[in-house]
Each structure stands twice: as C-alpha cells, then as structure tokens.
Amino acid sequence: MTQLTDLAQGQHYPAGALYIVATPIGNVADITLRALHVLGLADRIAAEDTRNTAQLLARYGIAKPSIAVHEHNERSAAERVIEHLRNGERIACVSDAGTPGISDPGAKLVDAVRDAGFPVIPLPGASALTTALSAAGAWVQAFTFVGFLATKSKQRAAQLQAYAKQPAALVFYEAPHRIVETVRALVDALGGDRQLLIARELTKLHESLHRCTLAEGPTWLAGDANRQRGEFVLVVEGAPQQEDADDAHDALLAMLLEELSVSSAARLAATLTGASRNALYARALLLSKSAEE
Ligand code: SAM
C-alpha cells in the first residue's frame, strides 16, 4: 500500500492546473489513490454542489475551500477558477458523482481553462457509463453515449429516430420517475427485438443488472415497484446489420466455380468478402446446379 501511495505521489502535479477528478457513483470506497492524493494536494475544489462534496471529502478526512461550478453558472465560475489558476493554485474539479463532464458540469470549465492557457489534467475513476458497459457483454462492441434523452415526448422520439439505424449500441442515463416512460419510448422507436441491459443502483446496496429484450423491459419494470427505484443506465443493442442481398456475390462465385468445387469456392469467397460461408455455400450450390442444367 505504501508503494502504491508512493506511486500516486511520485507523479508530477504542476501548480496552476485544473485537475478533473472522478468520485464514486455510490460506494464511497470507489475512489482512486491518485484522486485522494490530488484532492489532498489541491488548493481549492471546484464542485457541482459544495455541500455534497464537503460531506464526501470529510469521509476521506479532507477539507478544502471550494467554488460552486454548476449547470447554471459554469461560464462565470470558470472566470473565478482561472483567477485562482493565475495565482498558481491547483484546482480539483469534481461533480456530485462519477466523472465530471459526463452528463455533469465540467466540460465548459475545461474549455475555458484550456483557452486561458492552463493545463487540464484528467484523473480516471468511476463513471456509471463505463461501470454498466463493463458488465454488458459481447453484444456491445461500439457504443454511442446518449446520456439523458429529452423529457418531451416529441423531442425524444425525434432524437431516437436519429439513432434508430445506428449499428452501435446506445447508452442512456435515466432517473427513476421517467424510467418506465423512457423504456416504452425506446420500444416504440427501436422495436422490441433488441437486447436491453437495465443497470440500476450500480455499486450500491440494491444494485441490479437485468438483461432482457426491449419488448420485455416495461413488463419487467412493472413486476416490482423496487425495480423502478434508484439511478439507471440503459444499454440497448445497436440496429441489426443489413444482410447482403442473396445474389451480392454471384459474380465472384461464378468465377470461382469455373476452377473450384462448391465448398472451396464458398470458402474462398467467404475469406475474400467476409460474408457468411454457409450462405455462400448455399448460393454456390444453386449456381452450380443451374449451370449444369
Ligand atoms: N457524471 C456521472 C457519471 O460519470 O456517470 C453521471 C452524472 S448524471 C447527472 C447522473 C445519472 O448517472 C443518473 O441519473 C443515472 O442515470 C446515472 N448514474 C449515476 N450513478 C449511478 C449508479 N450508481 N447506478 C446507475 N446509474 C447511475
């Protein structure tokens, strides 16, 4: 442990820099050694809610002056932060939970500080986004982080329409009072067949991860009032990829069949095109039969 603490301390932490520090999304123990070191080193904390952050930092035995940087004052607060950076202070930016700038204040502060010529130094840590994705499974490869959808139904439907054909999985954040409505909207916009992961209360006492199809989502949520409580990440499978038309590789197969057996032609065509070997075999068989006739 001492060696690890030394590693956290061993890095250079320049003065006159903004440190973006991730804090836990539930379990207070989910904080990194470097985060604790930098929070201890910082002259000031730029916090989304200074009282929340003071309470959290007290759990780690840290007390620091703070500046409120929230959704409604981010630009003006950035000016104050920059003044402190000019005085050579190290400022740590934290949000109420997880990683600043991920559906949380922080991004405008980052822009302003970088534009003013000061370094912005990120410290990795908890985020509901990566925590949910880490337990999603292999059906999620590429993903698009959407965050919170619009609350008005028309706007939300238009947003979802724009994502409906994307092959990448979609990741949403949602609050308990809108979870049922949002899952229904997802079914309406994306159909019922796709996989859905409902990740609730991650890292907390009532954590649950439930995988089902989108069509099954509303019924599962309705099955127990507790399933609608807490904080949610929804991960939805991407749009199914369009299969190649049956005859997409006929010209290639016909050429290969002049020299090769049906199975060799199908194998080679599969290697060349990336299409399914079984589908190409069936097609090659058909082509060779019709050539014989
Ligand atoms: N910056 C945070 C992050 O890095 O994840 C997100 C902040 S955003 C204002 C809050 C939303 O994140 C919640 O409404 C919920 O959708 C999601 N969230 C945060 N903590 C969570 C948890 N423990 N379990 C599931 N979702 C969570």
UniProtKB/TrEMBL annotation:
Give the Gene Ontology MF terms in alphabetical order.
rRNA (cytosine-2'-O-)-methyltransferase activity
GO CC terms for this protein? Answer: cytoplasm
Q: Which domain of life is it from?
A: Bacteria
Q: Which InterPro entries match?
A: 4pyrrol_Mease (IPR000878), 4pyrrol_Methylase_sf (IPR035996), 4pyrrole_Mease_sub1 (IPR014777), 4pyrrole_Mease_sub2 (IPR014776), rRNA_ssu_MeTfrase_I (IPR008189), RsmI_HTH (IPR053910), SAM_MeTrfase_RsmI_CS (IPR018063)
**RsmI HTH domain residues:** 244-287
This protein's major location comes to: cytoplasm
Q: Which Gene3D superfamilies match?
A: Cobalt-precorrin-4 Transmethylase, Domain 1, Methyltransferase, Cobalt-precorrin-4 Transmethylase, Domain 2
Note the HAMAP family from the entry.
Answer: 16SrRNA_methyltr_I
- Check the record and name the PANTHER family matching this protein: RIBOSOMAL RNA SMALL SUBUNIT METHYLTRANSFERASE I
Name listed for the protein in its UniProt record: Ribosomal RNA small subunit methyltransferase I
Please give the organism: Caballeronia humi
Gene name per UniProt: rsmI
